[in-house]
Amino acid sequence: MKALLQRVSHANVRVDDTLIGEINAGILVLVAIEDGDTPQTVKRMAEKISKYRMFSDADGKMNLNVSQIGGEVLVVSQFTLAADTNKGLRPSFSRSAEPSLGHSLYLQLAEHIANTGIPVSTGQFAADMKVALLNDGPVTFMLEM
């Protein structure tokens, strides 16, 4: 599993010009579910995302997590993060989980984060989405499990 975390001032996702998810300050999580990922992998990733200290404290140090700043999380599936780009000029997606498993684990990730008390919005799995964001910093981290 790969999760690209972006600290944002705000973010939203649209499908066919319909707003389906939106947050104010917090984290935009672009997530790829890969072969071999399990509910346990998802739970560990959700815990890490929920507790990841990527927000500044009063001294300007990244010591606060999203909950501590009263932030929100927008979880968007992005299977292209699982691409193997080592050979040639066309990415291979053989590392991506089968779609029904990917969908289930994606929803579980959002649910686990929400169960920590953090407001969560989501994109729409396997849809052509338009994601808009204002990256704060910019601050971006790649987490892998």
Automatic annotation (TrEMBL):
EC class: hydrolase
Entry's EC annotation: 3.1.1.96, 3.1.1.-
Gene Ontology biological process: D-amino acid catabolic process
Keyword terms of this UniProt record: Cytoplasm, Hydrolase, RNA-binding, tRNA-binding
Cellular component terms per the entry's GO annotation: cytoplasm
Compartments in which it is found: Cytoplasm
Coiled coil: none
Main location: cytoplasm
Reactions mediated catalytically: glycyl-tRNA(Ala) + H2O = tRNA(Ala) + glycine + H(+); a D-aminoacyl-tRNA + H2O = a tRNA + a D-alpha-amino acid + H(+)
Cleavable signal peptide: none
SUPFAM superfamilies linked: DTD-like (SSF69500)
GO MF annotations, alphabetized: D-tyrosyl-tRNA(Tyr) deacylase activity; Gly-tRNA(Ala) deacylase activity; Ser(Gly)-tRNA(Ala) hydrolase activity; tRNA binding
Motif Gly-cisPro motif, important for rejection of L-amino acids: chain residues: 137-138
Subunit structure, interactors included: Homodimer.
Record function comment: An aminoacyl-tRNA editing enzyme that deacylates mischarged D-aminoacyl-tRNAs. Also deacylates mischarged glycyl-tRNA(Ala), protecting cells against glycine mischarging by AlaRS. Acts via tRNA-based rather than protein-based catalysis; rejects L-amino acids rather than detecting D-amino acids in the active site. By recycling D-aminoacyl-tRNA to D-amino acids and free tRNA molecules, this enzyme counteracts the toxicity associated with the formation of D-aminoacyl-tRNA entities in vivo and helps enforce protein L-homochirality.
Record family assignment: Belongs to the DTD family.
Record comment regarding domains: A Gly-cisPro motif from one monomer fits into the active site of the other monomer to allow specific chiral rejection of L-amino acids.
Protein name in UniProt: D-aminoacyl-tRNA deacylase
